[in-house]
Write a structure and sequence with these properties.
The protein has 227 residues and is of the alpha+beta class. It folds into 2 domains: 9-85 and 200-223, no CATH class; 95-187, Winged helix-like DNA-binding domain superfamily/Winged helix DNA-binding domain (Arc Repressor Mutant, subunit A). It is 46% helix and 15% strand. It has helices at residues 9-19, 34-37, 51-61, 82-89, 95-100, 106-117, 123-129, 138-150, 180-187, 196-208, 213-223; strands at residues 21-23, 64-70, 73-78, 121-122, 154-162, 172-179. The strands form 2 sheets. It has a 3-stranded antiparallel β-sheet with strand order 1-3-2. It has a 3-stranded antiparallel β-sheet with strand order 4-6-5. Helix 4 (82-89) packs across helix 10 (196-208), helix 6 packs across helix 8 (138-150) and helix 10 (196-208) packs antiparallel against helix 11 (213-223).
Length: 227
């Protein structure tokens, strides 16, 4: 898909609104990604034109939802589309009810409850406070975070400084998480209370105007918009 390069944060926000769903890296056929539509020499410069920094600025500003929502890969979803995606991929049951029904793991429940208790918690603090700091728990921690993103229970909300390290004089920023409901409320994005079938219809109609035929086919299959 031919796409002119963009060089500013504002242009990226506009593009997300235009295409609805923008992956960080190539994922959707004949559809742009942040990597593809930005200039190579802007990445990892640490400046305001660095797309690597935009990836956490976008959700922090409330400009787009961000998380590993599709095929375990990070994507940005516009404010317009996200409520429908949440209805489709999420659940009307509380996370505690889903745990009781065996639909989510105990580890995912623990992480969600910790994030809910401390909205915006960064990765290292979350792992420490959830008791998953051991090397043997690394994969469990990562898998549980991924599970919670795929069910739209949590979103990546930005990046925060971490001090959960031995040297208190050293600090660095790591990914932070919020429950989806909390992030949407702060971003001023209303929750949708429509039925999942209507959400699929609305989303498909909107994507039809925003995506190529190949991209729409991919998203139709993943989101099961025709069922």
């Amino acid at each position: 898909m031919s796409q002119a390069k963009i060089s500013t944060y504002e242009e990226t926000v506009q593009l997300i609104n235009e295409v609805g769903i923008l992956p960080l890296a190539p994922l959707i056929p004949n559809h742009p990604s942040l990597y593809q539509i930005t200039l190579d020499d802007q990445w990892l410069t640490g400046t305001e034109t660095d797309p690597w920094l935009w990836r956490t600025r976008l959700p922090s500003d409330g400009a787009a939802a961000y998380g590993k929502f599709i095929k375990k890969k990070p994507v940005f979803i516009s404010r317009e589309l996200f409520p429908w995606v949440k209805v489709i991929l999420g659940s009307t049951l509380s996370i505690e009810a889903r745990y009781q029904q065996g639909l989510i793991s105990k580890d995912a429940l623990v992480l969600y409850q910790q994030i809910r208790e401390e909205e915006g918690i960064e990765t290292r603090s979350l792992r420490f406070k959830a008791g998953m700091q051991g090397k043997e728990m690394k994969k469990t921690f990562e898998r549980s975070l991924l599970d919670l993103q795929e069910t739209i229970d949590i979103v990546i909300s930005g990046a925060k400084e971490s001090r959960i390290i031995l040297d208190v004089n050293s600090a660095w920023k790591s990914t932070s998480f919020e429950t989806t409901d909390h992030w949407m409320e702060n971003a001023g994005i209303p929750q949708s209370d429509i039925h999942v079938e209507l959400a699929k219809k609305e989303l498909k109609n909107c994507l039809t105007d925003k995506c190529s035929v190949e991209a729409l086919r991919f998203l139709n299959k993943f989101l099961q918009l025709d069922t």
